[in-house]
Amino acid sequence: MNLLVAQAQQFEAPEILYGAIAPVLIVLGAACVSVLLEALLPKHQRWAVQLVLSLVTLVAATGALIFYATSDRPEQGVATLAGAIAVDTPSLFLWGTLLVLAFGSILLIADRSVEPGGVFVAQAAIRPGTVQDRAQATKTGMQTEVFPLTLFALGGMMTFVASNDLLTMFIALEVLSLPLYLLCGLARRRRLLSQEAAVKYFLLGAFASAFFLYGVALLYGYAGSVKLSAIASAAAGTDRSDTLLFAGFGLLVVGLLFKAAVGPFHAWTPDVYQGAPTPVTAFMAACTKVAAFGGILRVLTVAFENTQWEWRGVLWGVAVVSMVIGAVLGLTQTDVKRMIAYSSVAHAGFLLIGTIALTPEGKTPGVSATMFYLLAYGFTTIAAFGIVSLVRNSDGEATHLSQWAGLAKRSPIVAGVFTFLLLALAGIPLTSGFIGKFVVFSAAIESGLTPLVVIALVASAVAAFFYLRVIVLMYFSDPAPDGPTVSVPGAFTTIAITLGAVVTLVLGLWPTFVLDWAGTGTFLS
Amino acid sequence: MTWVLIALLVVPLVGALVVAFLRKDDKKAKLVALAFSLVELVLAVLLWTAYKPDGDRIQLAAGVDWIPAFGVRLSFGIDGIALVMIAVIALLIPLVIGAGWTEKLPAGRSQGGYLALILVQEAVTVAVFAATDVFLFYVLFEVMLIPMYFLIGGYGGARRQYAAVKFFLYSFLGGLIMLASAIGAYAMASDELGKGTFDWATLVKVVSDADATTQTWLFLGFFLAFAIKAPLVPFHTWLPDAAAEAPIGVTVIVVGILDKVGTFGMLRYLLPMFPTASKNLAPLVLVLAVAGVLYGSLLATGQRDMKRFLAYVSIAHFGFIALGIFSFTSQAGVGSVSYMLNHSISTGMLILVIGMVIARGGSSLISDYGGMSKVAPVLAGMLLLSGLTTLSLPGTNSFVSEFLVLIGSFPTQPVYTILATVGMVLAALYVLWLYQRIMTGPLRGDALLGAAAGPGAVGDPEKKTTIGDLSKREIAVLAPLVVIVLALGFFPQPVLDVITPTVGATLTEVGVTDPVSVQEGK
Question: Which major enzyme category is it (chain A) (predicted)?
Answer without folding.
Answer: translocase
